[in-house]
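Section 5.1 Outputs to date
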Amino acid sequence: MARRRSHGSVFRRRLPDGKRSKVWTIQYTAAGKRQREQAYTDKKASEQLLAQRQREAARDEVGLGDPYRVHRARPLTEHVEDFLAGIGSRNRTEKHRKLMRSRLLKAFREMKASSISDLDLAAAEVFLGRLMDEAGLAVTTRDHYATALGQFGTWLYDLDRLPKDPFRRLKAVGKPSDAVLERMALTAEQVKQLVAAAESRGRDRYHGANPDARPETLDHFAWKGWRRGTLYLFVALTGLRKVECRGIRWCDLELGEDPWVTPRPQTTKAKRKDPIPLDPMLADRLRQQRREIGRRTGRLPAKQAAVFEVPNNIAERVRSDAAHAGIPVVDDEGRRLDFHALRSTFATLVARAGVPMQIARRLIRHVDPKLTAKHYEKLGGDDLRTGSQLVSASFWGVAATAGDSESLDDRENAE
C-alpha cells in the first residue's frame, strides 16, 4: 500500500506475476506534472529521496532551484556526444572527433567519472601523470589529453551545464621548440652498422639457440633482417615517417636512372603529393629486394603490394638491432634512439651536407608554416635532385666502405 506524503507517495509496484517489486517507487509533482522515479529497496532511503525531490520542486517553483541539476543527472557520455556534435559543426573531420572521443572516454574511465559532477581537476592531474609515469607516453601525448579535457570543460561552462570549468587550471606541460634533439641522430657509419645488425641479429640469435637449425630456416631470418635493414636505410636517406613508410607501394617507386619515391598524400602530414629523390645506392638495394621477392615467390611483387613491413613495435626492434651493433640507445645528453630517430638522422645529414635551407625544408617536408614560407616553396625537381645528391655524397663518403653490408647478389655469387 502506498504511503502518501504531502503531494507525494512511496509505493512498490505490482509485477506481472502479481508480486510486489522489492524496489520502492516514488511519485511527486514537479512543474505541474506528475513524476515517477525508481528509488531503493530500503523504504526509509526512498522516503528521503522523495523528500529531496519535493524540496527541489518547491525551490524550482520560486526560482531558487539548481539550474544545473538536469545536466548533472545525465550520463557523462551524453555530454561527450553533444560536445562532439558541436565540434563537428566547426569543420572538424570524423577522424578528429573519433580521436577526441577516445581520449575523453579513456580519461573519464581512469578518473572513475560517470557524471559531470564527478569531474575533478585533481583526478585529471593524477590521470595525466599516470600516462607519463606508467604508460611511458611522451609529453606531447599527455598534452593532447589535457587539451581535450580543457576544451570539454570550457564547453560545459560556456553552455551553462556547470557553474564553473572543472579543468580551467589544467595546463599543458609543453615541449621545447627544438624537441627533435630529444632523439639521437646517428652518423653514417652508425646507420650502416644498424643495417648490418638488422641483417644478422635474428639469424644469429636463432642459430645460437638452435645450433642444428636448417639452412632454409636461417635464410628466412636473414631475409627478414635484410628487408628491415632496407627500411632503416630508406628512412635514413629519405626522412619518411613511419605511417608514410607503411603506405609506400611498389608503384610509388621510380627505380630507373633517375629514381624517386612519391609518398601517398593521405599518409603525409601536409596531405599533398611531394615526390622525393632517391639515393642511387638505396634505389639499387630496392631493386635487389624486388628481384629477390620474385626469386622466392616465383613472381615479382604486385604494383599495389606494400614495399616495407613496419610492425607496431618497430621502435623496439631498432633498439634491439642497435644493441646488437654496439650502438647506444641513449646518448650522453639523454637523447633516445627509436624509429623516428632515423628521420632525425636524415635531417642532420642534410644539415651536415651543406644543403641550402630552402631545399632542406622541402626535403625534410616540415608542415609548420614558419618552415615552409612561400619564398621557400618555389623549387623545382632539379633543385631537389641537387640537394639529394649532396646528402648521398655526404653519407657514402663519410663512412668506410668496409662496413657496408653485402648485397643479396654478392651472397648469391658467394654461394
